[in-house]
């Protein structure tokens, strides 16, 4: 049995459920607008921890480059060139895939732009800020997004795995580019004060980002309970 058939079996094994709670939770967590508070908080933290507007602009442009390389190129070129059906639209198993509120996504799904985008940003900001707790939180955030795509049946596990790998490469590469553009060593400076991370970001701001992640998840859980 080849990996494509295995991928289909794994998808059918974990896709969907009879739980209205999980249906609502997955739909909320997979929606881009749900994570607007996180993006706003990231911008706030970058502004507060940058010496000047040039540094802020450079970080923002690098974050946008992550999204472009990780997701936009995928949507524009990789998906139509590879032409792998999304599970929900696959002629072989499409009718077996559980969907939520009729959501099926576009025609093609290889590879997952959700997984790639979120993991590229997670890796980029983890390397930039250098807070262990925040790094774990961002990785979990990306993995949760990947889970929603499989649960909703719009991506195979293999789509998500490849997206995570590509996103990790993009996030690391863009961070290295940022170091070069700033003419700094790849290894961040070590800050003596416990109030700062190794890259010079205030720990209270890193903790703020973790709080935003937690509260966004709690919002999604409460919304799933009530609606």
In brief:
Helix content is about 65%, strand content about 0%. It has 8 helices and no strands.
Structural account:
The structure is a single chain. The chain has 227 residues and is mainly alpha-helical. The chain has eight helices and no strands. The radius of gyration is 19 Å and the shape is globular. The model has no long low-confidence stretch (mean pLDDT 93).
Oligomerization status of the protein chains? single chain
Kindly state the mean pLDDT as a whole number?
93
Q: What is the alpha-carbon Rg in Å?
A: 19 Å
Distance between the termini: 42 Å
The tally of beta strands, per DSSP, is 0
Largest sheet data: none
Structural class: mainly alpha
Run of helices and strands: HHHHHHHH
Basic shape: globular
Helix content: 55-70%
> In percent terms, what proportion of residues is strand?
under 5%
Note the topology.
Elements: H1 3-14, H2 20-30, H3 36-48, H4 53-82, H5 113-129, H6 132-151, H7 157-181, H8 203-226
Helix pairs in contact: 2-6, 2-8, 3-8, 4-5, 4-7, 5-6, 5-7, 6-7, 6-8
